[in-house]
Amino acid sequence: xxxxxxxxxxxxxxxxxxxxxxxxxxxxxxxxxSIAAAAExxxxxxxxxxxxxxxxxxxxxxxxxxxxxxxxxxxFVGEPGAELVSSYTARESRPPxxxxxxxxxxxxxxxxxxxxxxxxxxxxxAVLMLAIWWVLSGSRSGSSxxxxxxxxxxxxxxxxxxxxxxxxxxxxxxxxxxxALGSATPAVASSTPPGTDAASSQSKRDDATPVRETxxxxxxxxxxxxxxxxxxxxxxFYDVASAGSAHxxxxxxxxRVVLGNxxxxxxEVDGKAREIPAxxxxxEGARFVVNRSGSLARAR
Length: 300
Known about the structure:
Blueprint: H1 20-30, H2 35-42, H3 46-53, H4 63-77, H5 81-93, H6 116-144, H7 155-160, H8 164-169, E1 175-177, E2 184-186, H9 196-208, E3 213-220, E4 224-229, E5 235-241, E6 246-252, E7 255-259, E8 265-269, E9 272-274, E10 281-282, E11 285-290, E12 296-298
Helix pairs in contact: 1-4, 2-3, 4-5
């Protein structure tokens, strides 16, 4: 009995290339780390790790910040950082897809017949208002002719009639004699609060006072992640600094500094070398504050 050989199974389709975020997530899972643990070791926010693993690079700011985060996180989870940065750069250089919603539409011409009804309504309203004005002006002129001369009091009679009750009910304001016109005018109290000019002048002097800025210089012997913020929380430096480089920033103190590799960083404040406090160390990194006086203290 002849037995026919079973047909060979078809070859499996090649696996689809994984995205940058999927490779980063796979590397983290191989290392047995959670997102929170990876963020703590890298001194990053959890949202930064989540955005990297979900390919939401637009949430991380400018392209230079994305490349710094991407290279640092890839090296941390055992993925080739240079290769992933190159993939990200190639992805950003592609032209965006065309927006099909911006399709030109033919221009719609206005129908002149639609303007007839509003114009007719405006004309009727104008005629009606003119008629009402004519009627009211005629009635006022007729009533003014009916006033009897006997009801008009002479100036002498008006001056002789006492009006104490009216004076008590409605007191008149104090009168101030004008030296130029010789007429009495009501005295009006000034509504401007005293000291306004002095307060505004003091505010202008305070705004014009120059604010002294603290100059910070960092020299690196090893690669390190560096973050520097001024007193208002504005970001002065936020990137991976390479070994052998030096970076100088200036800002309103106190300055807040975060270092990923504090052992390879030398600090100068206003041209004077400063030691990083031992209390500011957090594993390999450090968090400290540069006071306005130039001293370094642990960040709270």
